[in-house]
């Protein structure tokens, strides 16, 4: 989707699409702290939306603490925006790949014959005693916000190397190597940092973190990657857009 393209046929309301678009541009630094967002008439013209839609979209960003509105001075980006790295999803792997490209990688390490725990063995449906383990910290504008560890079956992990991962996300490297990605199952939980995670994220031990566990599957439903990511709560936000599906009519009928 281009910077000014919204999809009126999508299930996600236009004001949410516009808010997502503006949020990405704020978090990427295109609209830096202290800068002014386009006015409502400018948003209406650029994105072909109504004044109500433009106003609702900006209202979402105000509620998130990213911008403030003031009479006579426009809508300004707040300092809180610079402290946050955000990911915003509507449920697609391609969107996840695009979001991952926004961050840089540090402390990249690839272990070719790493021991496998029972939880990883079960998640990847393995019979082998080892996996390829890829760990790295991720940063945005030089500030570390996440530590991720991927576990890959040997036949998949052997396709990657450090040079590729320095340039692209692991998912992009897999796709470019001919591995098809079809779906993923993800869970999110509040957690506390143990000694290793705290050191990786430059936090005191016991600090709160957000732990995201994801299993990525191929078209044959076989697991390809098991990843655990740990995020600093003070530098990261995770937003998922939800909408009613085709069962909405029966839902409302049941409430009538």
Automatic annotation (TrEMBL):
GO BP terms: negative regulation of DNA-templated transcription
Superkingdom assignment: Bacteria
Domain HTH gntR-type positions: 12-80
Stored InterPro entries: Bact_HTH_transcr_reg, Chorismate_lyase_/UTRA_dom_sf, Tscrpt_reg_HTH_GntR, UTRA, WH-like_DNA-bd_sf, WH_DNA-bd_sf
UniProt keywords, alphabetically: DNA-binding, Transcription, Transcription regulation
Gene Ontology molecular function: DNA binding; DNA-binding transcription factor activity
Keyword Kinase carried by entry: no
Pfam families the UniProt entry points to: GntR, UTRA
Protein name: GntR family transcriptional regulator
Organism of derivation: Gordonia jinghuaiqii
Top-level taxonomy: Bacteria, Bacillati, Actinomycetota, Actinomycetes, Mycobacteriales
């Amino acid at each position: 989707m281009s910077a000014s393209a919204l999809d009126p046929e999508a299930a996600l309301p236009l004001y949410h699409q516009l808010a997502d678009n503006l949020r990405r541009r704020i978090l990427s630094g295109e609209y830096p702290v202290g800068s002014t967002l386009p006015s409502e008439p400018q948003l209406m013209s650029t994105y072909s939306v109504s004044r109500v839609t433009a106003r609702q979209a900006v209202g979402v960003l105000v509620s998130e603490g990213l911008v403030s509105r003031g009479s006579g001075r426009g809508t300004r980006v707040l300092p809180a925006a610079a402290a946050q790295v955000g990911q915003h999803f509507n449920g697609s792997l391609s969107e996840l790949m695009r979001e991952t490209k926004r961050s840089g990688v540090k402390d990249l390490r690839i272990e070719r014959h790493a021991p496998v725990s029972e939880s990883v063995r079960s998640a990847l449906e393995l019979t082998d005693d080892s996996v390829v383990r890829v760990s790295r910290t991720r940063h945005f504008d030089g500030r570390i916000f996440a530590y991720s560890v991927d576990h890959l079956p040997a036949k998949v992990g052997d396709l990657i190397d450090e040079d590729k991962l320095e340039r692209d996300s692991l998912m992009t490297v897999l796709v470019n190597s001919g591995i098809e990605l079809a779906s993923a199952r993800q869970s999110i939980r509040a957690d506390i940092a143990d000694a290793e995670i705290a050191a990786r994220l430059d936090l005191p031990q016991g600090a709160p973190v957000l732990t995201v566990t994801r299993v990525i599957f191929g078209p044959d439903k076989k697991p390809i990657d098991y990843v655990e990511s740990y995020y600093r709560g003070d530098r990261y936000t995770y937003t998922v857009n939800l909408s009613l599906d085709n069962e909405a009519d029966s839902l409302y009928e049941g409430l009538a």
